[in-house]
Amino acid sequence: MPYTQRTLSSELERGLVAQSQATGLVGEEEARDSTPTTLLFRFLAEVSVTFLLNEVIAEANEEDQELHNQEREDVHPDDDEILQNALQKEALALVRYLLRQYNSCQPVTDVDMLSRITGGYRPHFPVILDKACICMQLLFGIDVKEVDTLFHTHVLVIAAGITYDGVLSHVQGMPKTGLLIIVLCIIFTEGGCATEEAIWQVLDKMEVYPDSEHVIFGIPRKLLMDDFVYEQYLEYHQVPGSDPIAYEFRWGPRAYAETTQRKVLEHWAKYSGIDPSSIPTL
């Protein structure tokens, strides 16, 4: 392995071991037994499992969320575990609202978001908003950016400079940029090209299977081949001299035109504990 790639792997491993332990996602032994590529996406997989409950999709296009809020009990739990579960549910409700606003190209304000949180949990608004933003960024590839510090107005934009979200203009679907960024990350951490097998091995840990319907991504293999390759974010080639025949993915010309390795890495580095400036390849 080239020096720069080895350095990258060690940086990723150190940061993600620390992140996994700090968040309680994995224990020390489990973290250190994992490969750097697995560690890189362990946090993403945990976010997927934690946030992506079926209600995120089932209620993504609901009518105003206030009706849902009125049906929930306004309680003040003292137990920390109960509180954390309640805050996650509040974050899910906020994610549904943010997805509707993104689909309608509408900005949001803190006042708007606060009004959709059950009264008893409004003092926890910063924590709820942080959880919702992580979900939007890592699963859907959508950044929640504050553009007005006076009125605390936010806009919802595609992350990492990418201009494609995989949502048909006439259908209120789910943004697919999150998966695209994950695949670009896999390719980067594999040294600029990743075999088809390596891609699916990592996505398997997020319960994203090539030919199984996914609530956000549809049929993942079709999304990669018919969308990401067609849109020139990915290139798909036969591995030279492979026997049996194998195929690999590389960054496509549109990916290079719209984003950079640093931007893609920074997208998840905010949550992984890695400092992109410390990676020589960048």
From TrEMBL:
Among Pfam families, the record links this protein to: MAGE
Looking up SMART domains in the UniProt record yields: MAGE
Tell me which GO cellular component terms the UniProt record holds.
nucleus
- The MAGE domain sits at 87-282
The alphabetized list of GO BP terms reads: negative regulation of transcription by RNA polymerase II
Xref: InterPro entries: MAGE (IPR037445), MAGE_WH1 (IPR041898), MAGE_WH2 (IPR041899), MHD_dom (IPR002190)
Protein name as catalogued: Melanoma-associated antigen 6-like
**Source organism of the structure:** Dipodomys ordii (Ord's kangaroo rat)
